[in-house]
Write a structure and sequence with these properties.
heterodimer, A: alpha+beta, Ubiquitin-like (UB roll), Fumarate Reductase Iron-sulfur Protein, Chain B, domain 2, five-stranded mixed β-sheet, two-stranded antiparallel ribbon, 7 strands, about 35% helix, elongated, B: alpha/beta, Flavocytochrome C3, Chain A, domain 1, Methane Monooxygenase Hydroxylase, Chain G, domain 1, five-stranded parallel β-sheet
Chain lengths: ~240, ~600
């Protein structure tokens, strides 16, 4: 038996409630939540789908750590004290473990879509080298669990949702900007409305990514460099470097 | 009068996996107002879980491939029960549908000369599956989603449709609720496309999530459409079996495509022992030849591990039943052995099968580059479904269309791996296109509001039912759902008989009576128990259809196996489809319909490829 301290309630009124349930070999946190839901709390709200770390639905904070519930084995969590399970805190609460993540979908909608160059071949296809797409494929592994958004202090602590798109959408921007056949330029938006400057590369997002995308090093820093290259005079920049 | 929001559309799409998204994109090409309703958040549907690849005869890796070979492979895989016209359209159009995804941003793995790479898969004669490592479905749904959000489609996320609305013969709208507050919504539409996916939640061991409760099947059935070949449920041969909590999670066929082998507790590659007549000429008769095939040797024949899914699943069950299984009731799937064959095997495996590596390491503490996996069959897909016109995807109900897993016809008695992703692109597009055409050619019909009051009452009934029955048993939905899953697994699983199926139908009827009295605690806000209670209706309808069709087909063919009728054909019965329809008095009836002879030119292709 183990105790699970689960956040219950809605935006108006919510608190932790303790549930005891049986724990067996190989169980993940989501299994415990499901068992409690089936046996003790039928009306408990929890988002999930694939239960295999592929859809990014069951994001939560487990003992304060942003994780996917379906990929967190109970034998990696101390069970001698209650296991706390909370919804993602960087977003408004809907109910229990379900956060309102709709802001993320709105952010993506306002970003400039993919715009390919004319096809390379007559059958409407393009030629791309595998090595030129490896890094973009890394970004496209993103399952949109939004754990990186949850942990980002610009969103979580400073609530700058109106001025900063967060690591998920910087990765998305990188996947488009570095796509070998894309022709669009998104640097002005990145600098202004997307607020890339707010990121001070603390790499919290990289640490929580369940897909192990190197968000900061491979996506955000190269984008920051591109923004600098486009908007700050390179010769003056060079001058500053030499006069340090 | 109950309160509800009304949303008016020309075309309404129900379901936002690959088929629904592709249909919505197509329907939105003109000026039509298109609505898209999905049970989860956008981009989370089960398309995301498809791993191995999308089948299309691009002939990028082997120029001998063509739509004709793909057509013949699909027909053979389906044991010639597929709708030949659908198989023809599918084979012809899937290459364009895949290329088009690239124009929308998808990035498939590349060949040496920069084209789309293709891999081997069970039942496909040539390397045919365009893929991205083992996360092809994610790439596809994201490409469709990221393109779709800029097409002016209105998306209703976390909304469930509980009933279709009809006016006379025509479909005129849908009634549903939104999850957040439990508010009711009515969607009016001139045409509706069902793209709700499968019904795998009817079984205990399944790769399907809570969403896959046969909603489209039930909605269509109650609206007067026909269901076809519902007995054909695909049990994917390789699901995880240990630990118990992950039982059923899919292990991609790509593992075998990359050279993975199946062995029993005696270390024997048992698949060599049983190669079906239909495939003898195409199958390797020694391990060396099989290995060469997986490494792209064009002269080699495929290893028996890459026989069709129905056959591999049955062989695994046989090994387990005869005492040669793995410790936790499966068999061994070994990819680590390829280190005998290639240098840097561990790195190669991690690159080719990244999500499988991750999945086993995280969930089972197993390093697949060093040790074998334990696998066994898991409920994966339903070949049967809503009967549609091959070209337009329209059902028997005017204005009602269906595409993707909830529709049927392409896969016959068994689906080839990779053909579902191409299915949803080809027929998703067609459904969207013809639904849009229907909406342009027909005026909206007024809705019958009195009908809505009845549906509202039904939808709220779980809150009014008592919490316990007369004997003090809890009437919550999870118990009833679990009982149904147990019974379907036990009685309508891989091995079936007259006795098991008759008992199953009886059990389903008893559970239906219980479900009438199912109780939901709490209120309408994001209430999982209430949703499960409402989904029970659909799940029971789909389950009954599967069992009834299985009882009707007195033969063992494709994914359907009858212990009491081991032969592939019933003497004198010929080839037929089973058809399920709701009778005027509300009962479920099954009948057979003979399959027409193949068009001559299509028959010639099949004869040529034999």
């Amino acid at each position: 038996m183990a105790t699970f301290r689960i956040w219950r309630g809605n935006a108006d009124d919510a608190q932790f409630v303790d549930y005891e349930t049986e724990v067996s070999e190989g169980m993940v946190v989501l299994d415990a939540v499901h068992r409690i839901q089936a046996e003790q709390a039928n009306d408990m709200a929890v988002r999930w789908n694939c239960k295999a770390g592929k859809c990014g639905s069951c994001s939560a904070e487990i003992n304060g750590q942003p994780k996917l519930m379906c990929m967190t084995r109970l034998d990696t969590v101390p069970l001698d004290a209650p296991v706390t399970i909370e919804p993602m805190r960087a977003f408004p609460l809907i109910k229990d473990l379900v956060a309102d993540v709709s802001w993320n979908f709105k952010v993506k909608e306002r970003m400039k879509p993919f715009a390919p160059r004319p096809p390379d071949a007559e059958d409407g296809t393009w030629r791309m080298e595998q090595e030129d797409i490896d890094h973009v494929q890394e970004f496209r592994k993103c399952i949109e669990c939004f754990l990186c958004q949850d942990v980002c202090h610009v969103l979580r602590d400073h609530k700058l949702h109106d001025e900063f798109i967060g690591p998920r959408f910087l990765v998305y921007a990188a996947s488009l900007e570095m796509h070998p056949i894309d022709t669009e330029n998104r640097l002005e938006e990145l600098k202004n409305s997307d607020g890339i400057g707010y990121c001070n590369i603390t790499k919290c997002c990289t640490k929580v990514c369940p897909e192990h995308i190197t968000i900061t090093d491979n996506a955000i820093i190269p984008l920051k460099e591109r923004v600098v290259d486009q908007f700050y005079d390179p010769i003056k920049k060079l001058f500053r470097v030499f006069n340090r | 009068m109950s309160s509800y929001e009304t949303h008016e559309y020309d075309v309404l799409i129900i379901g936002a996996g690959g088929a629904g998204l592709r249909a919505a994109i197509e329907a939105a090409v003109g000026d039509l107002k298109v609505g898209l309703v999905c049970k989860s958040l956008l981009g989370k549907a089960h398309t995301v879980m498809a791993e191995g690849g999308v089948a299309a005869a691009l002939a990028n890796v082997d120029e001998r491939d063509s739509w004709r070979v793909h057509f013949a492979d699909t027909m053979r895989g389906g044991q010639y029960l597929s709708n030949a016209r659908m198989a023809e359209l599918h084979a012809q159009e899937s290459p364009d549908r895949v290329r088009e995804l690239e124009a929308w941003g998808a990035l498939f793995d590349r060949t040496q000369d920069g084209g789309i790479l293709q891999r081997n898969f069970g039942g496909h004669q040539y390397p045919r599956l365009a893929h991205v490592g083992d996360r092809t479905g994610l790439e596809m749904i994201r490409a469709l989603q990221d393109h779709g959000i800029h097409q002016g489609i209105e998306v209703h996320m976390e909304n469930t449709v509980v009933s279709l609305l009809k006016t006379g013969d025509r479909v005129s709208g849908a009634f549903g609720y939104e999850r957040e507050k439990g508010r009711f919504k009515v969607f009016t539409a001139k045409a509706i496309v069902l793209a709700t996916g499968g019904a795998g939640k009817a079984y205990k061991v399944t790769s399907n999530s809570w969403e896959y409760t046969g909603d489209g099947h039930a909605l269509a059935y109650h609206a007067g459409a026909e269901l076809i070949d519902m007995e054909f449920v695909q049990f994917h041969p390789t699901g995880m079996v240990w630990p118990p909590s992950v039982r059923g999670i899919l292990v991609t066929e790509g593992v075998r495509g990359e050279g993975g082998i199946l062995t029993n507790s005696e270390g024997k590659r048992f698949m060599f022992d049983d190669i079906p007549e239909l495939y003898v000429n195409q199958t390797a008769d020694n391990p060396e030849e099989g290995w060469r095939y997986t490494q792209g040797d064009r002269e080699a024949r495929r290893p028996p591990e890459l026989l069709t899914r129905d056959h591999v699943a049955r062989c695994i069950v046989r090994e387990v039943q005869e005492g040669r299984g793995s410790p936790h009731g499966g068999v061994f799937l070994d990819i680590a052995w390829i280190k005998e064959k290639i240098p840097n095997a561990a790195e190669h495996i991690r690159r080719k099968l990244p999500s499988m590596y991750h999945q086993f390491r995280e969930l089972a503490n197993i390093d697949i580059t060093a040790e074998p996996m334990e696998v066994g069959p898991t409920t994966h897909y339903i070949m049967g479904g809503i009967r549609v016109d091959a070209d337009s995807q329209m059902t028997a109900v005017p204005g009602l269309f269906a595409a993707g897993e909830c529709a049927a016809g392409l896969h016959g008695a068994n689906r080839l791996g990779g053909n579902s992703l191409s299915d949803l692109l080809v027929f998703g597009k067609r459904a969207g296109e013809y639904a849009a055409q229907f909406a342009m050619e027909n005026e909206a019909v007024p809705m019958d509001e009195s009908e809505i009051e009845t549906i509202v009452a039904h939808t709220l009934k779980p809150f009014e039912n008592p919490q316990t029955d007369g004997n003090g048993n809890n009437m919550g939905p999870y118990g009833i759902q679990a009982q149904l899953q147990e019974k379907m697994q036990e009685l309508v699983g891989i091995a079936r008989s007259q006795e098991s199926l008759t008992q199953a139908i009886e059990e389903i009827q008893n559970l239906r009576e219980e479900a009438e009295n199912v109780h939901a605690i709490g209120n309408r806000e994001y209430n999982a128990g209430w949703h499960t209670a409402l989904d029970l209706d659909c799940l029971l309808t789909a389950s009954e259809a599967i069992a009834l069709a299985a009882l009707e087909r007195k033969a063992s063919i494709g994914a359907h196996s009858r212990d009491d009728f081991p032969e592939k054909e019933e003497p004198g019965a010929g080839k037929y489809n089973t058809i399920i329809k709701k009778t005027d008095d509300g009962a479920m009836a099954v009948r057979r319909e003979p399959i027409d002879e193949l068009r001559e030119d299509l028959q010639e292709i099949i004869d040529e490829m034999e």
